[in-house]
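Example record for the data management plan.
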Amino acid sequence: MMNEILTAFITFFTVIDPIGTIPVFIAVTANAKAAEKRKMAFTAALTAAGVLLFFIVLGELILSAIDIPLATFQIAGGIVLFLFALTMIFGESKPEEELSHIDQKDNKAIFPLAMPSLASPGAILAAILLTENSKYSFAEQSLTALMMLLVVFIAWALMAMSSYIFKYIGNSGAAIISRVMGLILSAVAVANILGGFKIYFNL
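Corresponding structural encoding:
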């Protein structure tokens, strides 16, 4: 049980990447007052939590409705997570990639902060894969949801303290951490792919 909780926390921390969100938040709120920054951080975290909870609760039901076996989704999800991890390691880091999406006309708390920075495609896939109904009990799914909420809470706290943190790590530090997270995510993705093949072929 403890290993599963730790795995869920590490997976969500990797795919949500609260540290990598700091430079994005700073750029998005560059001209905002302190009160506006706090409001945007709260809105972004609340929206991301709502999106991920939606997929935790209904993600597998949606797959069942369109007759997609969870094993095949796990394999596909693992591949997508692996490709996502490769972009974190070799491509643009999270801060660099998401800063390019900033548009002054958009609701910045929703885009790019809530999505795709916090509730990223990788986080959505992880939410579904870590709460499989046939594999995990309601109690285990609840713990997974709590781990996700804990990571989102950490992201909110880091955004609230972003001005102080960024003074120490800078863009380079955030990019390095994002790439380390990508390496961890790649290992998690491979484990998901192998697990999906094992289930699909009854190995």
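Summary line stored alongside the record: The mean pLDDT is 84.
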